[in-house]
Amino acid sequence: MKEFTIILYAGGNNRLTTDLSLPKSLLPIGNRPLIWYTLQVIQSHSSLASSPLIILTSGQYRQALDDYLSTLNITYEIVIHRQHHDSTSGGEDQQQTSDELGTLDVLRLCYSRIRTESICLLTCDLFGKVNLTPLINMFRVRDASLCMLLLKTTTTSSTTGKDSLVQPGQKAKFTAEPEYYTIDQSSNTITSIRLKADLDEYLPLRQNILAKYPRTLIRTDLVDGHLYLIKKSCLDVANRSTYSSFRKEFLPKMIRQIAIDKPLEDLIFPANNRKPMMRQKTMDLDDHGDLSRILEQYDCDDNQIRGGCYYFIDDTPLFRVKHVLSYLEANRQASSLISSYTNEDITFKDRLEQIQISSDCVIGDGHDIGKKTTIKRTIIGKNCRIEDKCKIINCVLLDNIHVKEGVTLQNSILCSRSTIGSKCEIQNSIVCSNQQVETNKKLNCETVSAISNESTGYMIYDDEQ
């Protein structure tokens, strides 16, 4: 019997380009779509590589996603979901975002397909190489209700060792809302997750939790990696609840209930009308015959309280591709990451006459590059035409782009089927799909799109669970 069922959320809207036929999961990074990197994380651990894989996406992306996944040597099932609830009010002024399906709403659509006692939930935007063995072993050894992956907050300068990069596109005031993680370092227990918006002036700490976990810390330098190992008995409660979002609504309440030793069923049923929650015994450990040795590794013994919520912090350069700057950074790291997974060198090796292309560039098939052109630290997609005397540095060009003579591009993103007129100077900007920039145009920190007020949508796109 399989230990895990993997639920992969791949239905996030693509807000980087205006090509609605391309979901976020298929955004190209290097010469691979974003979902490829998440699939490598799954395939890197034998317990997950052999597990049933259910991919959740919306109907408009089904065909494009299926066309790509069918080229891979994996077994999967795609479950289609709506993007919005059925309208009940019919009011014309109803906000679109107010009736969008949450991640728990989507999960309920495939819940009957889950046949295992443990579930791995994750999104398709995790980029980097992560060793899941400590997380999975902790989940088994502790017989945990939940184990979640936390990442240390990093900037692109700390990831690359270079100066901070300027985020392309129109300037927008956006500050990531800090999260407060209350954790116990001695046992790797997480006892609460709080958003700043949910707090008043102080962060309350319960006395009974401090007594139980005397080495409690509150950390704000962590971010959720959106990778969870969770018992199906816990998701049974979420499935029967009225919550819409797993990450923002159910997860914080679940962690709090378990930390204060209250039944999860209290979230949906009164205490006097509750059915007991059955727990499954832990599965056998991979490559570890001596259970006591593993228990020592996690500073616990066989009599320690089980069924709690635990965290694992990964120290490798791992991040989620959820905004423009992280998308640029992922493209810069793509060649080395692909090489670590496949031993394939995707960097451009051809030598072209009177053309300077640095060794860290990736250039797709069907390219046409003119003479006296310089390209450095840049990713170029398929069927792109770049005319003579162009200078392109720190950029991402998607497929079917035409850059005319004498253009200078720096730290910018050109989306599919865009055209840049001759002698343009573009830096720190985004040109959306199917757009044309006129000759001799100078752009700095701008977004060129079909709708002028659309630009702020490209600054941050996040599908919080």
Write a structural description:
The protein has 465 residues and is of the alpha/beta class. It has two domains: 4-326, Spore Coat Polysaccharide Biosynthesis Protein SpsA, Chain A, CATH 3.90.550; 347-458, UDP N-Acetylglucosamine Acyltransferase, domain 1 (3 Solenoid), CATH 2.160.10. Helices cover 21% and strands 24% of the residues. It has eleven helices and 31 strands. The strands form seven sheets. The chain has a seven-stranded mixed β-sheet with strand order 5-4-1-6-12-8-13, with helices on both faces. The longest helix is centred in the last third of the chain and has 19 residues, at 324-342. The radius of gyration is 24 Å and the shape is elongated. The two termini are 28 Å apart. The relative contact order is 0.15. The model is unreliable at 87-98, 156-163, 277-292, 298-305 and 452-465 (pLDDT under 50).
Instruction: Please list the strands of the largest sheet in the order they lie side by side.
Output: 5-4-1-6-12-8-13
CATH architecture heading of the largest domain: Alpha-Beta Complex
Any idea what the CATH superfamily of the largest domain is called? Spore Coat Polysaccharide Biosynthesis Protein SpsA, Chain A
Main beta-sheet strand count, sense and barrel state:
7 strands, mixed
Number of helices: 11
In the CATH hierarchy, the third-tier topology of the largest domain is known as: Spore Coat Polysaccharide Biosynthesis Protein SpsA, Chain A
Question: Average pLDDT across residues?
Answer: 80
Amino- and carboxy-terminal Cα gap: 28 Å
Topology, number of strands: 31
**Overall body shape:** elongated
Q: Compute the gyration radius: what is it?
A: 24 Å
- State the share of residues found in helices, binned by percent: 10-25%
Low-confidence stretches: 87-98, 156-163, 277-292, 298-305, 452-465
Number of domains: 2
Strand portion: 15-25%
Alpha-beta classification: alpha/beta
Instruction: Identify the CATH class of the largest domain.
Output: Alpha Beta
